[in-house]
Design a protein that fits this description.
Length: 443
């Protein structure tokens, strides 16, 4: 601090703030611009009117149409035509746009109850409860499940909504290395044997929190091993299926379906409707006892307005299609198409020498750029070739592990994917980002 300047509050309180503001403004420059269409397999973005920083857009400006590799539209339900659109419009006619009340007051409609029954059946649990926002499903329910007498073991790459929930709960927290079962077991053992490090009392509950598919890595959690460990140490398991529900498993029922496990072995099954269902909100599924408890204790249930009708109806329609209840076979077709697109796209990029993270069946495909300076340029060069792709850097990733993140959809055609692969190949040569020694051009 300079002398005489003690009262001065710096604009950036930390290096993170400084980095985020300055580097992200440049990333916004190429990507984070208003969209002017449905976020389907194609997307319309607003052209910038003036080459300046921040949010200087002309709302009447031209739009550019791109192939959309940025939205989490895994099963192509964001397109919202046909039965999805018709049913949601009918729901607005019947119930209006908003519920204008919390579920506990006068916000629960017959549609909410029907949805909860369907979600429970879809994920294979006794009961389910839904919330208007995926983020709040985690941040408002974890504090209802654990408190300062409990411990949480959290994967080091867990999503911000999970971290927020854990911090709000006041539980003692330990993180374990991403998907590292030895580290998880070591830490579980330590918590069970030593108890709370300050009071030395045993913890009332130990909750392991993991995700199905990690959205920055494209990795799939090692669920069979995690279930074995939670049973061995008598811990509870919270599984966030935001990116795996609908998108993974032969019947699209998430990571449990992918590994062929019993859903009842997961104590708390959480997921969001913002990805595979093309809607909004989140759910928690589990035993009837758990769901009744959450309905009466969760802040997200008692103090937050109910999920809007059109949103609930979009989930009902898309979930029934995925489950094959419309009798058309469209759901299974989309699940298989997503799996095929994912494998093809990943293999083609690898062949060209890019470093691609994650499991071969993960529809989130991170392409490593490494250098912060290449992040914005990659996004901009792809946009010039008609491809919209999200680029990610610090603090969402470590500083030196910047990446582009492609999200596959069942709605992408082979021609679209080939165009994206060709554009990535061109930009890859310009930016010199084909780093793989095994598969790269110099292999
Ligand atoms: N959990 C995970 C793992 C997520 O990735 C996200 C957001 N993408 C959320 C929860 C929050 O969901 P929503 O965007 O539906 O609020």
């Amino acid at each position: 601090k300079e002398k005489g300047n003690e009262g001065f509050v710096p604009l950036y309180s930390s290096w993170e703030d400084f980095y985020t503001r300055n580097v992200y403004i440049r990333i916004r420059d190429c990507w984070n611009r208003p969209i002017c269409s449905v976020p389907g397999e194609r997307i319309k973005l607003l052209e910038r009117s003036t080459p300046s920083f921040g949010w200087a857009f002309s709302m009447t400006g031209n739009t550019i149409e791109c192939i959309n590799m940025g939205s989490y539209n895994y099963l192509g339900f964001a397109e919202c035509f046909g039965p999805c659109a018709d049913n949601s419009i009918a729901a607005i006619d019947k119930y209006g746009v908003a519920g204008c009340s919390a579920r506990e007051d006068v916000g629960t409609t017959a549609m909410h109850l029907e949805l909860e029954e369907l979600v429970a059946r879809f994920v294979g649990c006794e009961a389910a409860v839904t919330f208007g926002m995926g983020f709040a499903t985690n941040s408002a329910n974890i504090p209802a499940l654990v408190d300062r007498h409990c411990a949480v073991l959290s994967d080091s790459l867990n999503h911000c909504s999970l971290i927020t929930g854990v911090r709000l709960s006041g539980a003692f927290v330990k993180t374990f290395k991403h998907n590292d079962m030895k580290d998880l077991e070591d830490k579980l053992k330590e918590l069970v044997i030593a108890g709370h490090p300050r009071t030395r009392r045993p913890f009332q509950k130990i909750l392991i929190i993991v995700e199905g598919v990690y959205s920055m890595e494209g990795s799939i959690c090692k669920l069979p091993e995690i279930i074995a460990l939670k049973k061995k140490y008598k811990a509870y398991l919270f599984l966030d299926e935001a990116h795996s529900i609908g998108a993974l498993g032969p019947r699209g029922r998430g990571v449990v379906d992918f590994f062929g496990l019993n859903p009842r072995d997961v104590d708390i099954m959480m997921g969001t409707f913002t990805k595979s269902f093309g809607s909004a909100g989140g759910y928690i599924a589990g035993s009837r006892e758990l769901i009744t408890f959450l309905k009466h204790t969760s802040g997200g249930m008692i103090y937050s307005a109910a999920m809007p009708s059109a949103v609930a109806q979009q989930i009902l329609t898309s979930m029934r299609i995925i489950m094959g209840e419309d009798g058309t076979g469209e759901g299974m077709r989309r699940i298989r198409q997503l799996a095929e697109n994912t494998r093809y796209f990943r293999a083609e990029l690898k062949k060209r020498g890019f470093i691609i993270y994650g499991h071969k069946d993960s529809p989130v495909v991170p392409l490593l750029l490494f250098y912060p300076t290449k992040i914005a340029t990659f996004g901009r060069f792809m946009l010039q070739r008609g491809i919209a792709v999200v680029v990610v850097g610090f603090p969402a990733t470590p500083v030196k592990l910047g990446r582009a993140r492609f999200c596959l959809s069942a709605a992408h055609t082979k021609e679209m994917l080939d165009r994206v692969i060709q554009a990535t190949d061109e930009v890859g040569d310009i930016l010199n980002i084909k780093y793989s020694r095994k598969h790269g051009p110099n292999a």
